[in-house]
Amino acid sequence: MSDQQPPTPEQPAPPPGPTAPPPAPYQPAEPNQSAPQQNPYGGWTTAPAYASGPAVPESVPYVEAHFGPVASFGDRVLALLVDAGLSFLPFLLMLAGIPFIVAGVPDRNGVDEYGMTTYGDANGALIAVGIAVMVLFWLVGVGFQLWNRVFRMGRRGQSIGKSVVGLKLVDARTGAPIGAGNCFLRELVSGVVNGVVYLSYLWMLWDDNRQTVADKAVHSTVIKVPKS
User: Fold this and answer.
1) What distance in Å separates the CA atoms of residue 51 and residue 53, rounded to the nearest whole number?
2) What are the phi and psi torsion angles at 167 (to 5°)?
């Protein structure tokens, strides 16, 4: 018996015709180098990738990549001084009511036979005018403060002081104005915390995101914009 295996049939030759080209080697996609799209509130809507990864929302790199450069402490103090000066003016005008009150106070006539000091009649009309003038300008001051620091800044992102210096208050996550409600809360927190050695405002000196305590309460920040 022979150990030889039967011959295997030959494979048929491929039919004549064009051969398919070999697949192209894999090429990684090039990163998109196009300029980021603009944000309707001023700034950018897409942030570049940093060496350590994408910027974290509310951080300085994130805000500056999306919306604009973050304001410095000096810029914010200057805007606050402008607003404070404008707000102080109505309260200063309250002093105009003092002369009326003084004029209405009764004069001292002298001492009677019993050693008692006697006074003339008070002028109630003058006293009432003085009080009315002081109340009026106090209401004007409070109203101006609410309009300038709550409604105007909440809707537009700018008080008069911020407009003069070229700053804008925005949501640190979206770049939009924070609204009157959040602006009122921000002013309230600032007023309460600033009672402790103006701590709310000074907080941004050592905060990594350059936010005050009031900013952190409503997730806001202040950026630089063209002066208006």
Assistant:
1) 6
2) -125, 160
Pairing assessment for the beta strands 117-119 and 220-224 based on DSSP bridges: unpaired
Q: What is the DSSP letter of 50?
A: B
Query: H or E element: which one contains 170?
Result: strand 167-171
Neighbours of 42 (CB within 10 A): 15
Q: Report phi then psi at 111, rounded to 5.
A: -120, 130
Averages of pLDDT over runs of 10 residues in the chain (228 residues) are 53 55 55 49 47 70 94 95 94 91 77 62 85 95 96 96 96 95 95 85 92 95 91
**Which two three-digit tokens encode residue 91?**
């309260």
Q: What is the pTM of this model?
A: 0.69
Give the up-direction half-sphere exposure of residue 84: CA atoms within 13 A in the CB hemisphere. 6
Q: Which amino acid is at 16?
A: P
- Per the listing, tokens 């000196």 go with 205
Q: Strand, coil or helix: what is 114?
A: coil
Amino acid at 153: M
Distance in angstroms between the alpha carbons of the first and the last residue of the chain? 108
Instruction: Please say whether the beta carbons of 151 and 184 come within 8 A.
Output: no
d(CA 179, CA 204): 22
Please answer whether residues 190 and 218 qualify as being in contact, where contact means their C-beta atoms are separated by less than 8 angstroms: no
- Give the angle 142-175-169 at the CA atoms, nearest 5°: 25
Residues 6+ apart with CB under 8 A from 2: none
